Structures are given as structure tokens and as C-alpha cells.
Fold this sequence. Notes:
- The structure holds two protein chains of two kinds.
- Chain A is an alpha/beta fold.
- Chain A has one domain (5-214, 244-256): Rossmann fold, CATH 3.40.50.880.
- Chain A has helices spanning 17-26, 36-41, 68-87, 97-104, 157-165, 177-182, 224-233, 245-256; strands at residues 5-10, 30-35, 51-54, 91-95, 111-113, 121-129, 141-148, 152-154, 169-174, 195-200, 205-208.
- A nine-stranded mixed beta sheet of chain A has the order 2-1-3-4-11-10-9-6-7. Chain A has a two-stranded antiparallel ribbon with strand order 5-8.
- In chain A, strand 10 (195-200) and strand 11 (205-208) form a beta hairpin.
- In chain A, helix 3 packs across helix 4.
- Chain A is globular and about 55 Å long.
- Chain A starts with a strand and ends with a helix.
- The model of chain A has no long low-confidence stretch (mean pLDDT 97).
- By secondary structure, chain B is α+β, with helices and mostly antiparallel strands.
- Among the domains of chain B are: 3-158, Phosphoribosylformylglycinamidine synthase subunit PurS (Mth169, Chain: A), CATH 3.30.1280; 810-991, Phosphoribosyl-aminoimidazole Synthetase, Chain A, domain 2 (Alpha-Beta Complex), CATH 3.90.650.10.
- Chain B is globular.
- The model of chain B has no long low-confidence stretch (mean pLDDT 93).
- The chains are: A alpha/beta, B alpha+beta.
- At the A-B interface, helix 1, helix 2, helix 3, strand 6 and helix 7 of A face helix 1, helix 3, helix 14, helix 16 and strand 22 of B.
Amino acid sequence: MKKPNVIIFSGYGLNCEEETKFAFELAGANANIVHINDLIEKPKQLKNYQILAIPGGFSYGDDTGSGKAYANKLKNHLWDELVKFLDKDSLTIGICNGFQILTNLGLLPGALTFNDNARYTDRWVDIRIEGNSPWLEGIKTLSLPIAHGEGKYFSDKKTLLNMNRAKEIAARYVEGEICKYQNLKPNPNGAIEDIAGVLGFKGRVLGMMPHPERAMFFTQLPNWPYLKEKYMRENISLPVYASGLKIFKNGVNYFTA
Amino acid sequence: MAQRIDIAYKIDDARGNAKKGNFEALGISGNIKDVRIVDSYTINESFSKQQLCKIAGALSNPLIEEFSINKSWAPKHFDWVVETGYLPGVTDNVGATARETIKDLLKKKFGKNTGVYFSQSLFISGKISQKDIEIIANSLYNPLIQRAQIKNFARFKKDRGMTVMVPKVKLQQKPSVDYVNVNVSDEELKTIGEKGIKNSDGTRRGPLAMDLEYMKVIQAYFNKLGRQPTDVELESIAQTWSEHCKHTIFANPIDDIPDGLFNYYIKRATDLIRKRRGKKDICVSVFKDNSGAINFDDDYLITHKVETHNSPSALDPFGGAITGIVGVNRDAIGFGMGAKPIINTYGFCFGELNDKRPLYRDAAKTNKMLLPKRIMEGVISGVNVGGNCSGIPTSLGFLFFDQTYRGKPLVFVGTAGLIPKKSHNKSLYEKRALPGDLIVMVGGRIGQDGIHGATFSSVAMDSNSPATAVQIGDPITQKKLSDAIVKEARDSNLYNSITDNGAGGLSCSVAEMAKESGGCYVELDKAPLKYPGLAPWQTWISESQERMTLAVPKKKWKAFQSLMEKRGVEATVIGKFTNSGRCIVKYYGKEIMNIYLKFLHDGVPRKKLVTRKLNVINKEPVREKEKDLSHTLQNILKRLNIASFEFISSQYDHEVQGSSVIKPLQGRGRVNGDAVVVRPKLDSSKGVVLSSGIYPKYSQINTYDMAACAIDTAIRAAVIAGADPDRLALLDNFCWCSSNEPERLWQLKEATRSCFDYAMIYQTPFISGKDSMFNDFKGYDERGKALKISVLPTLLISSIGVINDINKAVSIEPKFVGDLIYVLGETNEELGGSEYYSMLSEKLGEEYIGNKTPKVNGRKNKKMYNAIANGINKQLISSGISASRGGIAVALSKMAIAGGLGVKIALQKLPGSAKTDESKLFSESQGRIIITINPDKKGQFEKIMKGNKFSCIGGVVKERIIKISGEKGKTIINLPIKSAANAYKSTFKKF
């Protein structure tokens, strides 16, 4: 079983590439951060990878609309290579700004627009997994943080209907462990049908607003000090990892299992 | 011809709804029905219709937006439209991104003069008067940096839309160098120093902030050379000698201290601690670089620096704050060979939010000062954009309000960094430009923005304060630069030295690095400009943002240049470092500066400062027994200085980099804690702990105690979060006022003396600091009467420390019913300058400051903190909070709100000499921590704490209530947690 190769885009203000690489490596992959300009210079290297990750960040500072300028750059220089990559049996994940870039490229349906509170928001959410995807295999719910100004998912009714039918809604915001713990409303941004993430290319492409790489360790959870005290009193040994890691493991398992 | 593309939302736009809410909050009489937002891009280049369609397509998302080309987009019905855009030369980030997108899309080379300019129109419908629309427009733009046009529906129709404007910079001046005659009367010399060099049209170029004594030294120097100085030389000296750069007040001899306050009280403490520690010294680089650094583990250092950006934030709060935060990021990037920024901190001091009296900078009342609320909103949003866009978690912060910050707000911003100790067998925390190395400027270009920032912030703000001192940050340009340097060029060993272009711009960064090699030679005409027409002196001192200066060995230039090009970062050779002992600058071959480095750096005359003791006796309030202490508690929880600022914490990304451990909002109730813990290396269980302390109110009584309390608080909060007391370091930020007055200097001396004493007792070295000595506003009130507002002498102490195992970090929320509540440390009658007295004063309608500030018993506290650290290490402490502003009552309430669990305590058992219930509840005695523990650990815990003052005063209860019994055993507070939480969160609910 050879470790799959993961390419993680960087440059122009993407900023979660390092922790995303860490998560993939923790899950058992070989991960490389590649600056978009280096890929443009040598586009053929994309062939060496099985997994593509567009991480979170603030590409071009969200100027002209989140993800737009970076998507334009990809369209102008790497479109053919991207299409080829997606045509083969590959996996792609776009997290937060990465998701915004994927929708602007038209590779995932819908659009992401300003949060209902019209403000950048950092908090935790609970999501229920609904879609059919290698990325989501065996996962029912997750608690993850969001941090975005433009994360409100929008799509027209017809597309939504089709997505629902095709099980292409990856996850919805629901009230779960963290919302109950911190008394937060489930939908953080007003996303239509509480959509937190969507799928394309038969589940091989996943875009999601919450950040799984910020929920890979136990000590990243907002309620870990409480859980720690609880486990200590119950003589349960403390966990090291948290559930966000599962997504990265699923990605790796698709090629190794 | 200028072309214009308008882009509008097809679906509901949350921004419009938010604006509607903002406008309604302005208190206008009209009724706003709807606000629609249209984004516009004005392009001064000829494109075909087809090309424009393609461009519009790239700038919009067809699913949610529609566009209109060369025809103003407008909704069918509206009453007013307000369009805002930037003034010429002001950083326009959206315009710049659009320009790049268009260039890339059309594969077209743009001419130098092709610009893309962003503007935004708000179409407002509703019955709104002309006066009200002006109020609305004023809330949308700042005339110092922006322009606005207002049209009503009829006018819009008549004009067939908005008037297209191209805000291109047109500089009329011919870029030339002037000689300045310094052989003039003392009167004229003084004026040059105060108001600046005279232009040919009689206007002045802005403050040099040099007094007659400085000017005389300069006069003598150039007379010896037998020539007059050029404007470049004079401006350059002014920047280097400014209070902002040279810290003259801290450096000059004062009273009986020939070495000055900094050397004698701050640096000496660090030196002594390091010596005493020997091999256990945690410091690695202190006071000499852009940040200070301590050991993190065997291979890495953590760096920290806290800056202030007060004066610019008073004029343009957004620009001032964003420039502050991205500027202090460069203090990490510019540390050693470049540290990676890992966390941002912030702290804002504003005027009272209900203070609406108009103030003016000039007697003619044309320059109106912004109101505290406006300043606050702008500052918060500036740090939001700066921090979030840069991918650096912005976590720890505080808010503090006092009427004395009405003239100048204080905006503290800090950045901690992480850097390996070694790479390529070279130490990364040391650097040295070598003779022959190329002087390379990387990052943004130079414009008129940020001229005289250093000198401007060294004096009081008045009508001479230059508008050009305001800049707007461009975090993405900096992010590209930061990634290219810290993540690539540094580890490829491509340069020998690096520093930030901050205050004084190139004039300071190049001259500073020239000290390392022994000289520099600059060809200033090579420096890349934002637009033509900038005079050489402007180019040399401009503080345009997002730039760093590097020393690149000649043979590495090609590799460096190619890397920067691939990362979209502009890098330009502007000269070379030499060992000539001189700073030589040429402009198209003509020598425009030739000064000995020694004179530039050491020529500043030393002046002896004298202090005069200030005796203060304040009014003591007549205190009556409170009738309803539950109600009093609710009121204090609502106070600006106590209330939750969750709205800030939750709009700042504090999770990026995946490093958060103890977050800014803690527990079920999401309460703002006093410390944060982060894990900068995901493969290590070590963490960094950050905290701070600030008590400006105490300065009205005693600055020695004020400083002691700030230090104790910064240490205490870090210790209870889990920091190792032996691995803590401190940073000082003095924001003083009128520092030319002997009484203010006496206060300063007392505060620094305290810094020495307590650093020594706690063995916590100072590693970096910053001072800003003239936070005064000189202006006019509504009647045109002159007035001066000076900030309270303010000292922010920041602590940075290491926690060995992040799994042992302690949060503030109690976790289980039945746990025991302890108060550690003593509560005494120490209410002078307290939040409780401020509240009483408001109630009584007269200011009662009191006279008893908390006295810090450092030795006792140090012993107790070590015991607590031991308890944390043994995992005996389930939750803990430091009691600070607002006393035990506030700390306990925060715990209860955070945990969502009831707390029941008896004040009778409280250690200390405080007598009345009010004093026990609200005294701000230092050295106190409230903790909860599992009852099973009682024996073990008390054994560890033996020899310290502490007491078990109650427990965590099932009923969700804060229940406190008083001196006589009767219940004095009985407040449901929900009511406490509502009070705590009510103040900023609508922000």
C-alpha cells in the first residue's frame, strides 16, 4: 500500500496550508505544499498527485469577492490540467476559502456569500454528514470551527433539488454537542438549507466551510478542559486526536485500503 | 476614456441589511426601507465592449451577481445614493486585485498610468432628509482618505447615473532637492523644527519634531562641513532623532540617574536576572532587535513585540489600526533572520462611548475629531482585516475606556513569532549586513502615505498633524512577502540581514542596518514608487507599508530575485552596504545626502531631565452600605471595562494555524479570559502562554503601584493558565502624556522604578518594549476654546511564557457541581482607582478616585505562584481565574457564567484585612486567584499550598445562581447566572 500524494495549494493569501499538510501527514499521506506560481510554471506535476487540497485562507484578501481572484488565476493558467486531474480517480477537497474557490471555478454547484451578520465570524459548529463521498465514509456528525466572512451557501431551488436527490449535500449545520455546550444557534451564517458543505464529481470533490484541520487534536476542542476533567474523574485516559482527522484519514484510505 | 463596471447582487445581500441597521443607529429621523450595495470598478484604459464583458464576467459571480457596463446600475426605486471611493494615492486593495485579475485575464501589459479604482454605492430608499443623508454619508467615509458623492433620485436620473471619477495621483511638483538654510535666526530655526521645512509657496512640510537645541547641533555640524544641509539630510536626521525612534526621554539622564530610566530600571533588571540565572537564563535576544526572544524548546525561540499606533488611529481609525497590526507583524518577520508570526494580541483604550461633545483640531473648527464610538468601530475593524487576512490568530485582547482617551485613543497591537535557532549552521537570531551586500527593498511601493509618521507621533496632536501620516495596510501584499521570506528565502540562506520599514521608512531601516556593515550607499532614484512626482525627501522617509529592507550578498541576488518574482513580490536593489562610515544617498547621480553614521546615530544631544514630585490627595467617596448588592453586581458587570467583548473575539480568527488551546472565549458561557494558550508547533506538546495587565486609573494616585499591579496581573493570569513561572518574560509599553513636564516625568520615573523592583522579585526579565510619550491632544471645543486632553499615564505589561504540557492548561470555568472554591491571596481595603469607585463616582455625579491603590507583595505572591504552578503540574486545579478589575465579585461571576454552574461562597472566610462587604467584593487587591478543585484533591492541594494565605470559601452548586453571604453571615448577593450573564453581555450586544 503506497501512501497517496497530496498537493496543497498555497500563495496569494491562502494561509491554512501548513496545518492542512500536517493533518494529511498525520493521516498517513505524503503531502506537498506547492505555490500556485510553481504549478503554473510546471503544470505537469499535477499528474503525480492523487489528492488535491485547496486550503483555507484569504486569497487576494477576498477582494472582488471571496475566492474569485484565485479562481480566475486557476482558470487562466491551469484549467486543462485541473479538468484532467478531476477526470481521473482522484480526490479533491476545498476548505473554507478553498470551497469558495471551487464554487467560483464552477467545479462545485452554488455560491458562497456574506454571512447574515455581515461580519467575519469565528466559532464552532456541529454538522451532520449526509452526502455520499469517500471523504465522508463512516462519519455521522462532526464538531468543527468555522472562520469566515462569506460562508453563507446559496444555490437555486432546482439545483438544490438535484443535489438532494444525488446525495451531493455533504453536510448540514445541526444542533450537536458544541452548540449545546456553548448555547449557539446551529446555522452560523444563514446558509440555505443549513448547508455546510457540498459534493461534486460523484462525491470525489468535497467543499466545506468548516475547518477539519482545526479539529484534529483533542486540545483544539472548545470543551476539552471540561472533557479532560470528566475523563480524569472517570479514570478514562485522555484522547490525543479529535474527529476532524477522520476526513483526512478517509481521503488517505481511499487509495490505500 | 475611463470605463466603469458596476456589479450588484441579485439575491439578498447581508451587507445592505447590516448597513440599514447601522444607519438606524445613527439616530436619524427618517425611515430607511432598503439599502442596496453596488460595487464599481473604474478603469482608465480603453477596452472593447467584448473585453469589458469578459472583465465584468471575471469580477462577478453570475449565480448571485449581475453587472452593468458604462451605465450606472441602480434599483428601480430609491431615494438617495451615496458613493464612496478613495482619494488619489490612498491604498485601494480591491482596485489593485481587480487590476491584477484584468491583466492576467487579457494577458495585457498595462501602462504605468493604467489604474483600476474601486468604489461602492449605497442606494437607499426611505423618507430621508438632506440633513440625514449627510449624516449617513459622514458615517460612511473619512474625508482624510476618502471621497463621497451624494445624489437624490432626480439628480441621478438627470445625470444619467453616478459621475465617473478617476482618482489618479497628479503631483505638480518637479522632484528636486532643496538646500535648507540653517544659518538663520533662532526663531526661524525653532519654526523649522516645529512646523517643518518651508516650501517655495510658503507652506511648511510638516513637523520635524526637533527643538532649538537639536537644530543648533545640526547647524553646527553643517557649518563645520562648510555647507547647508539638503532637505533629505534634515528630514533624515529628524526621523532618526525623533522620540519615536531614539526614545530620548527614556535614554536621557534624569535627576540622579545618568544612564537614564531605560538603562537603569528596565534593561538593568534584565541584565541582572540573566546573570543570576546563569545557565537557566531564558533570554536569547533582548532589546536589540525588532522583537525580544526567549527559548521555547531546544531548537526554537519565541519572539514577542507589542507596538502602539495611537496618533494615526485618532485620524483614521481603520487605517491606523490595520497599519498597526500588519506593522507589528513585521517586527516578528524582521526579528533575526525572520520569525514566523504565530499570534496577534490587541488592546484598545477609547474615550467613553457616550461622550459626544464635538472637539476640533483647529481654532476655525474645520477639522473635527471623530467620536469614540466611531474610532472604536474603525479600530476593531482594522485589526479584523489585518489579522484575519494575514492568517495569524488574533486571540488575546482587552478594552479599556476612560474619558482621557477622547483626544487620542491608544491602540496596542502585538505579535509573537516562532523561529528556529539555527539553519545552515548559522544562528538565525543574529544578523549582520556585510560591506558589499546589496541593499534590497522588498514588498510594496513608496507613496506619499505615511510621511512624517515618526515625527508626528513624537508630539502632541494638533492642527499641524499631517493627513499624509495616515496609511492603509495591504495585508495580502505583506502575506506574500512574509511567506516568501520566512517560509523560503530564510531557509535557503539568501540574505545576511533584514529589518522592517516602519517609522522613518528607508531613512531609518537603511541607516540602522548600515550600523552593522559600517556604512551605506543608496541610489534613491532606483526605489520603486507608486506614482511619479515624489520628491527625494519624501521617498526617503515615507512610511508606505508592507516593505522590508534586506542585505543580500551579490552572488545570491539572482536566486533571491527569481524567488521573489515567483512569489509575486517586488524586490529592488537600491544600493549597497559599505564600510565608509557614512550614509551616502544619490539621486540620478547627484549626491543628496552625505552624513557620518556616527553623527546620525549618536549626534543627538543628550538633555538632562528633571522631575518634580507630584503629591496627590484625591477625594474619598463617602461610602454608604449598598442596599441591593445583587443589583450592584449586575451594574458592575455591565461596565465598559468589565463587560464581555465577545463581539470582537468572535470576529477575529483565533483558530487559524490550528494552534488554539485556551481560547479567548472560555467555557459554556463564552467568557473573555485574561490569558490564552497556543501550540505553535503541532508536533510538540509545549505551548505559549500570553497575558497582560493594565491599570491606567491607578496612575491618578500612584504610578509605582500602577506598574506593580500591571506586572503582577500579567504574571498571575499567565501562571493560573499554566505558564511555568520560571519561563516567563515581560514586555513594557509606556503610553505617557506631556513628558516634558517634570511631574509627568516623576510619574514615569516611579513607574519604571516599580518595573525594576518587581521584575527582580518575580525574576521575570523585560525582553522588549515601546514608549509613546506625548499622548496629548491640543485642540478646541465647540465654543472655540483651546483645550488639552492628556491620556492617563498608561503602562501595558504583556507577559509571554512557556507551558511544558498544553494538556495541563487551566481554563476559567468551574466544571462540576460539588467542587470546592478557594480564594488564594489576601483581600485588603484597596479600592483607590477601582472600577467600583468609578461606578460610585458616576452614581454620585462627582469623581472620587480614592487614595489606596493595591500594594503588591511580590515576595509573598511569588511563593504562592510557585505553589500554584506545582498544583497545576499535578493536575489538582480544575479551574482558575485571576481576580483583577472589579475584584472577587466580578471574577467569581465570570467563573459562574463561563461554567454555567452555580457558585456559593461565604465572605467571612476570606483571607485579608478588608472589612466591609463592599470592600471584600470589589477591592482590587493583587495576588489573588480563585480556583475550583475536585473535593477528592483537597488534602493534596492544601498540602501544596501550605505557608500561603488561602481559604476554601465555598463550592460549586447545582442551582444556577451566584450566592454570596456577607460579613454577618446573611445572604448579600443572590443573582441567577442568567441575569449575571445578561448583564455581562448586554453592553456590547448591538455591536
